[in-house]
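Render this sequence as a predicted structure.
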Amino acid sequence: MFETFELSRFLGRPVRLFVFQRQSVVWRFCNADRNLVIGGNTYLAAPIDRGEIKQTAERAKDKLTITLAYLRDPNAPEFPATQALGDNWHPYIPSDSITVTCLATHYGDTDPPAVEWSGIVTQPSFTDIELTLTCEQSPAIAKARNQGPKWQRACWKTVYSTGLRGCNLALDAFEVSTTLSAVNGLDVGSSAFADAPLALDGGWIEWTRLDGLVERRSIMEHSLGNLRLLYGAADLAVGLAVIARPGCQQTWAACVARGNTINYGGAIYKPRKDPTETPMSWT
């Protein structure tokens, strides 16, 4: 029936649908004058719309913009339906990706909505009353080329990655579970950090929010029982239960300290100087 509405000169009453997902939390909206229940899901009527969908030979030009209502005034008498979605980027950006799916239907259509576009949100832009989200069809890392193993002294593997070519270090092998006893801006403290088996700088802390989302912040510095984080979060407070995990310096010594040398990806016997003296990359 969707095609019938699309081809009809007078019967078509198009509605755009938007589905945003972050981990297990989903937000659904429609640019209609009332809430719509489709497939057992409720799409909230909201001031939201998207730009034109483009597919060209240059992927950088194929970004999609979605504009929605968002009030930055915390004392506003009333907030739009999209306020909770916008809170993901204000005042702190999310530590993980948020996917978006754009669909289309018509009033009275009994067929499932047609998927028109899907991707991830890559950049927010605020005014006092509006939020514009720039979206791409795939994360930037998926566009990279030649990301296989490298012949280098340092390990090329990502810590805690799994698989035949992964680091395969157990995620909970050196974790520190504790509650925060001090919070001062970007500095958080706990006596358990001082007893960590490995230095935590270069790693991260994570915690579960009341809505079930898992937040993560990179650790920039570790000094005894104190950590300095990359950026803050509204949830950071004394008494918050967190898990801190160390990163990896990607050296042979770091792999020895973790008892994981069988998975080391570097070439420890590679000469430090090119013996052939030919101009080439030599790390």
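Summary. The chain has two domains: 2-142, 176-247. Residues 2-142 form one domain.
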